[in-house]
Amino acid sequence: MKPLLSQSLHAAVDRRWLLPLAVGSALSLLLLVALTTFPLPFPSSSSSTPSSALFVEHKLSPTPPSPAGASLPRIAFLISGSAKDASALRRVLLALYHPRNRYILHLDAEAPDSDRRDLAAALAAHPVIAAADNVRVVDRANLITYRGPTMVANTLHAAAAFLWGHAGDGGSDWDWFINLSASDYPLVTQDDLIHVFSKLPRDLNFIDHTSDIGWKEFQRAKPVIIDPGLYMKKKADVFWIPQRRSVPTAFKLFTGSAWMALSRPFVEYCIWGWDNLPRTVLMYYSNFISSPEGYFHTVVCNAEEFKNTTVNHDLHYISWDNPPKQHPHYLTVEDLDRMVASDAPFARKFHADDPVLDRIDGEILSRSVDMPTPGGWCAGTRENGSDPCSVIGDTSLLRPGRGAVRLQRLMTSLLSEEKFHPRQCK
Question: How many CA atoms are closer than 13 Å to the CA of 127, on its beta-carbon side?
């Protein structure tokens, strides 16, 4: 009797689980059909562009770049300076000025507050700049130690401000971010620059870079430095701690020029970071000597979606010693022909009010004293000696000149089969 009772109990148990098992099987079958019929709300692993489904807020979705030729681009310029640079900063702004563009001027905390107030007041009183309302002077200045990470932090601060937009600068509509200093100067007009850039893919990043860091591995990557500018109110030089570190293995180090023209999609990636690479690299470079010469280079070349967008050039003419020293030569009239022959749209370094700047104004930019560089937007007259660029007309009207021919020649060379892909992030 015991064996027969045991069989009956097992049969009862088996029948008790039949209904749940059947229901579970049916639900599993329905789920399998649904998964294979309807797309998942996540990006495919083969996609190189982050999907908007990855973001909690729609504002964090990356902005797709406009196709080349879709409309005239707008450039966002950060122009930085320090104590005694207010006058030079204003001159660079006027040489670079176009009502379409966006501008942020930053005099670091070493400059007195009166310099920032006077600069802002002078720009507010300028008829053209006041009318376009597209220039901001940073009033809460950052302390900058040029060999430390505070310069990177300041660049990211300006980039974030451009992305956020502001009622006083025409909004956040722009395509490339270019960082310059008070010792830079343009070698083309903004009509030249906008005209040539209107033909380019909007996702290109002009950034001089290499993974052959050479001596920098021992002298910059392995030492650990502390930048007092991160936590002090007064500027002081960086200092080293005794311990050294190994070269990273989670990402590959790149180095290059601190001057660059970055696409809006890449700037958004650096600020919003839909993966953790920009923040991880930023934390590493917070203890790296001369971090402006490595942070953006390392991020762009380690990010799958951006490493093939780099153009290996910083768009500058710079005169270095051979081998290069810490700082380049100051440029003079004797360098003018070489500057122009380089086809670069910018040059550095210049002493404030060096006579060569007057030559550039007169011979290349056709710029009058205290007035913006002329362009197709200038709608005034020359009656009674007035400057036609005192009145803003159609900002989409361009009059490119010889500078556009030179810049187009440079772009054709940089984007050639011999120079574009072979020089990217190796």
Answer: 11
Phi/psi for 224 (5° steps) reads -120, 125
d(CA 78, CA 90): 12
Give 78's DSSP letter. Answer: E
Cis peptide before 349, with omega less than 30 degrees from 0?
yes
Distance of CA 17 to the CA centre of its chain: 63
Q: How far, in Å, are 24, 34, 73, 173 from residue 28 at the CA level?
A: 6, 10, 52, 49
Domains located in the chain, CATH noted = 74-213+250-381+388-423 (3.90.550)
Q: Are strands 261-263 and 176-181 parallel, antiparallel or unpaired?
A: antiparallel
The rounded distance, in Å, linking the Cα atoms of 244 and 105 is 37
- For residue 321 the two structure tokens come to 């010693």
Strands 184-186 and 346-348, by their bridges, are: antiparallel
Under 8 Å between Cβ of 100 and 107: no
Q: Which residues contact 265 (CB under 8 A, 6 or more apart)?
A: 62, 63, 64, 65, 202, 203, 306
Alpha helices (H) in 149-198, listed in sequence order = 150-164, 190-197
Contacts of 339 (CB under 8 A, 6+ apart): 187, 317, 331, 347
**What single string gives the DSSP state of each residue in 84-113?**
T-HHHHHHHHHHH--TTSEEEEEE-TTS-H
pLDDT at site 180: 98
pLDDT tens per residue, range 89-111: 999 999 999 999 999 999 999 99
Rounded Cα distance between 148 and 249, Å, is 22
12-58 pLDDT, tens digit per residue, is 444 554 454 444 445 444 433 343 333 333 333 333 444 443 333 34
Residue 162 in this model has a pLDDT that exceeds 50? yes
Taking the C-alpha atoms of residue 340 and residue 235, their distance in angstroms, rounded to an integer, is: 37
- Residue 307 phi, psi (nearest 5): -65, -20
1-4 long-range Cβ contacts below 8 angstroms, 24+ apart: none
The answer to whether residue 348 scores a pLDDT higher than 60 is yes
* Nearest C-alpha neighbor of 304 from the set 336, 331, 342, 277: 277
Give, in order, the Cα–Cα distances in Å from 248 to each of 11, 201, 274, 285, 298.
63, 32, 21, 11, 11
